[in-house]
Design a protein that fits this description.
The protein is of the alpha+beta class. Helices cover 38% and strands 31% of the residues. Strands 6-7-1-17 form a four-stranded antiparallel sheet. Helix 1 crosses helix 3. The mean pLDDT is 84.
């Protein structure tokens, strides 16, 4: 089986900006620099301030911390903005890095499938060739390799009017989702934790003996999750699974207490097969950028048998 993937370079930059948005929020909070919000607009981040002093202080701090970003100042009405964009040199590096990371992720997924002697290599600037000899279930292999499951943890906003949101009046900074097996809910756009912090994911069962995925976080992820749960006791936390740019709230539990140890459980009306596949995808790592299949070829065993028979005939004729 041979598959040719094309990496979405715009998607790679978009994911990089999402990561920068999270990191910039953390940096500004850590340095106690007041800001009025961060907004994505095309391929830029707009950091909003109420006064020029805060903006100047933030610009100095961010320039020293994020060398790959360029900044420019802008004033809109009574707000003072700082526009952050990825520099051209950094853009090229990120796109190359996205292709290499996707190759690593594909290798991890192929290893999970148990295919012997696969060939995974870069083809041009934005394409990857995958050759899988002896694969039995080609549909399963294609599905696992082409999926782009990522995980996001955000907070639920239960204070806004959900009925108005259902009528199309979704408040700024929020998104309307349907919880799996539950009702509609408003989720904040701010991503607090992503699947990049995952070190392991295994299928299993929850306390009600229903299929679940048990996730382990790295040290930084554990620290963020512990702080998140400590500061939001009594509130709901949404765990989103994102595949092919479609996000779904798998579960939205209420935080009862601070959770340490870096262990997270995902459960919510999933089958054993789905839990196993999701664990495989999260364990193998997320794609740095979305990929599309632009060419696919499958060589069946009949062609190999014809070659064997032709070879035997050639040998017989040669002896004759």
């Amino acid at each position: 089986m041979k598959i040719l993937f094309e990496v979405d370079m715009e998607g790679a930059l978009s994911k990089s900006l999402d990561r920068y948005s999270i990191d910039i929020r953390s940096s500004l909070r850590e340095k106690r620099i007041a800001y009025a919000g961060i907004e994505r607009q095309d391929q830029t981040l707009i950091i909003k301030f109420r006064d020029t002093d805060s903006r100047s202080q933030a610009e100095d701090e961010l320039k020293s911390t994020y060398a790959d970003l360029s900044f420019k100042q802008e004033k809109v009405e009574n707000r003072f903005h700082l526009i952050a964009s990825i520099s051209p040199d950094a853009t090229i590096r990120m796109q190359d890095s996205a292709v290499l990371q996707n190759i690593t992720t594909l290798r991890n997924r192929v290893n999970e499938l148990g295919v012997a002697e696969p060939i995974i290599q870069k083809a041009g600037a934005d394409r990857v060739i995958v050759q899988l000899p002896g694969v039995q279930d080609t549909a399963k292999a294609k599905d696992i390799l082409g999926r782009t499951a990522t995980l996001e943890i955000r907070m639920v906003d239960d204070e806004r009017d959900i009925d108005a949101a259902l009528r199309g009046q979704v408040p700024f900074g929020l998104e309307l989702y349907e919880e799996r097996g539950g009702g509609p809910l408003l989720v904040r756009k701010q991503v607090l934790l992503t699947g990049e912090r995952i070190t392991d994911a295994q299928p299993g069962f929850d306390q009600d003996n229903q299929p679940a995925v048990h996730i382990s976080l790295d040290n930084n992820g554990s620290r963020i999750f512990r702080q998140l749960t400590r500061e939001n006791v009594g509130r709901r936390m949404a765990i989103l699974l994102i595949e092919r740019n479609i996000a779904e709230v798998v579960t939205a539990p209420v935080i009862r207490e601070e959770i340490g140890g870096g262990r997270v459980q995902i459960s919510g009306r999933m089958t054993n097969i789905e839990a196993r596949d999701v664990a495989l995808l999260l364990r193998a790592g997320a794609m740095a950028a979305p990929m599309d299949i632009i060419e696919e070829r499958t060589v069946g065993p009949s062609l190999g048998q014809e070659n064997i028979e032709a070879g035997m005939t050639a040998v017989a004729l040669g002896f004759a």
